Amino acid sequence: MKGKMLIVSAPSGSGKSTIVQWLMKEHPELRLYFSISCTSRAPRGTEQNGVEYFFLLPEEFKEKIANGEFLEYEEVYENRFYGTLKQQVERQREEGQNVVFDVDVKGGVNIKQYYGDEALSLFIQPPSVEELRNRLVGRATDTPEAIEQRLAKAEYELTFASRFDHVIVNDDLEVAKQETLKVVKDFLG
Question: What Cα–Cα distance (Å) separates residue 90 from each residue in 5, 107, 108?
Answer without folding.
Answer: 10, 17, 17
